[in-house]
Amino acid sequence: MAGITTAPERSLLAVMLSRRIVALALAFLIMIVGIAVFAPALFSLDPAAMSVRQRLTPPGAAYWLGSDAFGRDVLSRLVHAGRVSLLIGAGVALAAAFAGIFIGLLAGFYRRLDGPLSRLIDAMMAFPDILLAISLVAILGGSVINVIIALSIVYTPRIARIVRASTLVVRELPYVEAARALGSSTSYILSRHVLLNISSPIIVQATFIFAYAMLAEAGLSFLGVGVDPATPTWGTMINEGRQFIDRSPYLILFPGLAISFSVLSLQLLGDGLRDALDPKIARQM
Amino acid sequence: MHDTLVSIRGLSKTFHSDRGPVYAVKDVSLDIPRGSIVGLVGESGSGKTTLGRTVLRLIEPSSGSTYFDGTDLNSLNTKGMQAMRRRMQIIFQDPVASLNPRLRVRDVIAEGLVAHGVGSGREREQKVAALLDEVGLKAEHMNRYPHEFSGGQRQRIGIARALALDPDFIVADESVSALDVSIQAQVLNLLLDIRDRRGLTMLFIAHDLSVVEYLCDVTAVMYLGRLVEVGPSARVYSEPAHPYTRALLSAIPLPEPGAKRGRELLQGDIPSPLAPPSGCVFRTRCRHAQATCAETVPSLSPRGDGRKAACLRLSEIS
Does A15-49+59-284 carry CATH code 3.30.420.40? Predict the structure, then answer.
C-alpha cells in the first residue's frame, strides 16, 4: 500500500499571517487587548479623578491625550472604556455564537422545528439591528450585562442562519448516515460530525459579530441608551465630547479612532480567517 | 439457528414528492442465506440503494418487514433498533464523503465501539489496530486523517469501520463503483477474504454485472422498484430467464476483441417511478409483451431450478 502522501500543510495562522494587512490587524488587536487588560494595573489611571482647574486641557505633557470638561484624563478614560467595549464585544460574540449554534442545529437537523424556528429568525432579522437593540435595552435597563444580552439577541439570528444552512448540507452526507448505521446517538452526531465540520463559518461570523457589537455599543452609548453614563465607554466619551467639538475636537478624535481601528482590525481578521479557512483561496496565498 | 439470516417480506417504500408519490421499492421479498453474498443489480433509479437502506431501517419502510435472525425489525423501538445495529452494517459508495474529514482514522473506526460502549480506551485502540491490519492497512495509520489516503485505502477504512462491531450482516452499497478497476479487484478480494474468515452475510448492491458474477452466490435483478429475477448466480448468468435479465446480460462487453453476441437492445429509458406502468413494470420495453402484461402484475414464481422470475410468459419465451 504505497502512495500515502502527507501534504505539507501550513498552519491556519501561517496562512493568515502571510497577508500583511491581516498580520497588522491581529497585532493591533493583541495590543489593545493587552493595554485594556494590563495597563490599569500597571499605571495609575483613574478615569474618574476630576481636576476642575484643568478642564479641557489640550493633549500635552500633563494629559497625553488631553482632559475633558470635568478635567478627567482622556487617556485613562480611553483605556477603561476599552475594557468595557471589548468585554461587550467578546460577550456578545460568545453568547450569540452559543445561542445561534443551539437554534441553528435544532432548525437544521430536525425538520419539524425548521419551519417555526426559521420564521422566528426571519422575523428578528426584519428589524433594523439598532432599533431592536434600543428597544431591548429600554426594556432591560442600561447596564453592561443588559447591553450584552440585548445585542446577543440582536445578533443570534445571523449565527443561527449560517449554522442551519451548513447543518442542512452536512446532515445528508454519508458519514452522518454511517454514524446512524453504527448506532451513534443524536448528540454525538451533532457534536462530532455536524458541529466539527461547520465550525469554520461560525468562527468567521463570530469575529464579525465582535466588531458589529462594539460598533453597536458605541452607537447605543452615543444615543444615550447604552450603559449608564458613569461607566466610561468609547460611545459615551464621544457623546460627552460632542458639545465641545469645535473647541476640543480631540475629545471625540481619540475614542473615534479607537472604535474605527478596533472594528476595522476585527473585520480584517474576520476576512483573513474566512480566506484562510477556504481551501481554494488559502492555496493561492 | 435459521439458515436464512435476513428475510425481506413484502418491503415497499414510497416517497412523497411535490409531483406525487414515488414508488422507489415495491413489494420486494428476498431471503438472504446465512454466510452468503447476495448481489442486487439494476439500472440507476431501479431502487436498489433505497432497498438496501430500507432493509437496515436507515429509511423507514412504507409497508412490509425485514426479519433479521427471526426478529421483525419494524417491531423494535428506537432503543431495541439501536442495540440491533451492532449486528448489521453498511459500506458506502463514496469513499470521500463517507468519512468525516475532521476525525482521525482511529476515531472513525472506533465510532461504533464508542456508541455501544464496547471496551476501554486501550482495548478500542488494540481493536482499531487489528481492524486496520485485517483490511490491509497499517496500525500506525490510525493517527492520520482521511484526506491523507487514496480512494481504495479510504474504502478499506470504511470497511474496517463496518467490521468494528463484528456484525453478522453487511450491506455494501456500490462499494467498489467509485474505484479504479485495479483497486476494485483488490477491494473485492478483501471482501471475499473477510466473508470467508468471519462467515459474514452480505447484500452487495452494484450496477456492474461482472463484479456481481465474480462475488455473489445469489443474484437478484431489480427493475423499477421490483425484483424481476432471483437465483444462484451461475444459473442466472448462464441462462437468464427474465427478458430484462437477458437484455442486461447481453450488454456485458466480452473480453475477446472482435467477439460478437446476439445483443438484445432495450428501447427507450426506464419509466418514471412517479407513474409506473400497469401490470408488469417491464412491459413498456419488453419485446415479448402482450395485452395481458398490462393487466396482471407477475409474481416472482419459482422455476424449479432454485430460480424465480417475474414474467407471465416465462414458459413460452424460454
Answer: no
